[in-house]
Amino acid sequence: MKPRRCGKLSAMYVGEDNVSFASSRSDHNYTLAESVCCLPGLEKNVYILAPLIKNVIGNKLTEGLIVAYPSIRIKERPESEEIKIFIDQLNKMGKFKGLKYTYWYTRRAIKAHGAMECFDDDSATDLLQGYLNCGRMMVTAAKWL
């Protein structure tokens, strides 16, 4: 019997000055994260971001999406609710089609400066790599129990 191949994870990081995307790499058994793209400015228009999100998660192997934003923003502005509404709208539009998704509140805000804002796409990559590392550590710890 062949072992079941794990699905791919994707991440969307909603930062102060951009929205970035990352995906797990298939050539490393989905244990490494790589940057997919970065959009300058905080686009909350569902119709602008929906095709991009569909491309990021459109692969049949994608099983989960992690949506993240700095927890600092929750205290400054109640945008956390707006982001949840945005994701729910995408789900209602049929963009997720059974895809599992979760929210991750990060403790650090990744700021971009001027022309460098589109090069700040490492935020989603760092987030996804941390998530993958946590999962790997939990599986390893469970084997020792």
Q: What is the average of the pLDDT values? A: 70
- Strands, count: 5
* End-to-end CA span: 26 Å
Q: CATH class, anyone?
A: Alpha Beta
Total count of helical runs of at least 4 residues:
4
- What's the helix-strand series? EEEHEHHEH
Q: Strands of the largest sheet, in order across it? A: 3-2-1-4-5
Estimated helix fraction = 25-40%
Q: What is the molecular shape? A: globular
Radius of gyration, in Å, reads 16 Å
CATH architecture type? 2-Layer Sandwich
Fourth-level CATH superfamily = YqgF/RNase H-like domain
Number of domains: 1
Proportion of strand residues: 25-35%
CATH topology: Nucleotidyltransferase, domain 5
What does this structure look like?
With 145 residues, this protein is an alpha/beta fold. The chain has one domain: YqgF/RNase H-like domain (Nucleotidyltransferase, domain 5), CATH 3.30.420.140. It contains 4 helices and 5 strands; from the N terminus they run βββαβααβα. It has helices at residues 46-57, 72-76, 79-92, 122-144; strands at residues 8-14, 18-24, 33-40, 62-70, 100-106. A 5-stranded mixed sheet has the order 3-2-1-4-5. The longest helix is centred in the C-terminal third of the chain and has 23 residues, at 122-144. The radius of gyration is 16 Å and the shape is globular.
